[in-house]
Structures are given as structure tokens and as C-alpha cells.
Amino acid sequence: MAARHRSRTAALAVAAVLVALPAAVGCDAVDKALDCVQTADSIADSVTDLQQAVENAKDDPGQADEALDSIDKNLGKISDETDDADINKAVDDLQSAVKNVRTAIDNGDATPDISPVTDAAGELTKVCTP
């Protein structure tokens, strides 16, 4: 019985090493993915802020600009940290959507359609998820 227990323990130890080895090699990739997820989460918060700002535009028109600035800042962070084509495409799409909302606001639209921003932010969240 003791030999069987030792054999099982040894097998578990070998399995643990084999599982840990690829994880150790890929730490940078995992760290980048986690950074992407965290930044995408911040973007999602900014999109929520943008939605609220658009709803309250007549009370505080500057709120939307602040939310858009926050999204732009976080997109820059993701862009600087990745070379993944899917993530870069999602970032480009979201930047384009943000630019369109900003242009609409600058042209006097107090309640621009922000659904392209929310859609693009959702797509970014999907591609950032490891």
C-alpha cells in the first residue's frame, strides 16, 4: 500500500512539473493577456460612464468628453502592450467608434448613438479574454 502511495505521489509530482513548465515559459503572454483584460475592463467602465454622460448631456456636456478621453487613454495602453492582430483590430474599431461619437458631440449632437462604442468595447473584451 505504501509503495502504491509513493508511486501515486511521484506521478502527481511529475504531472505538476509538466503542467508548470509551459506555464513558466508563457508567463509574459499570460501577463500581457491579463493586462489586456484589466484594461478592457477599465474601458467597459468608461463606456458605462459614457452612456450615463450621454443620458445627462444637458446637465453636464463635458462628462462625455471625459469618458471618451478615458477610453482613448486605455486604448493607447492596450495598443502599446500588444502585437496581437485581433486585439489591434478591436482597438482600431473602438477608436473609430469613439472618434465618431466625439465628432457627433462636436457637431452639436447632445445624444449621439454610442451603440458602435459599446459593440466595439464588447468585441475588445472578447479578444482580450485569455
Q: Mind explaining what this structure looks like?
A:
With 130 residues, the protein is an all-alpha fold. It has helices at residues 2-25, 27-55, 62-81, 85-106, 115-128. 84% of the residues lie in helices and 0% in strands. Helix 2 runs antiparallel to helix 5 and helix 4 packs antiparallel against helix 5 (115-128). It is elongated.
Give the SSE layout.
Layout: H1 2-25, H2 27-55, H3 62-81, H4 85-106, H5 115-128
What are the defining features of this structure?
130 residues; mainly alpha; 84% helix; disordered N terminus
Brief summary of the model shown:
This protein has 130 residues and is mainly alpha-helical. It is built from 5 helices and no strands. Helix content is 84%, strand content 0%.
Name the average pLDDT. 75
Low-confidence stretches are 1-25
Q: Give the SSE string.
A: HHHHH
- Cα-based radius of gyration, to the nearest Å: 22 Å
Question: What is the number of helical segments per DSSP (H or I, 4+ residues)?
Answer: 5
Distance between the termini: 42 Å
The share of residues in helices is over 70%
Major β-sheet profile: none
Strand tally is 0
Which descriptor suits the 3D outline?
A: elongated
- Beta-strand percentage? under 5%
By helix and strand content, what is the structural category? mainly alpha
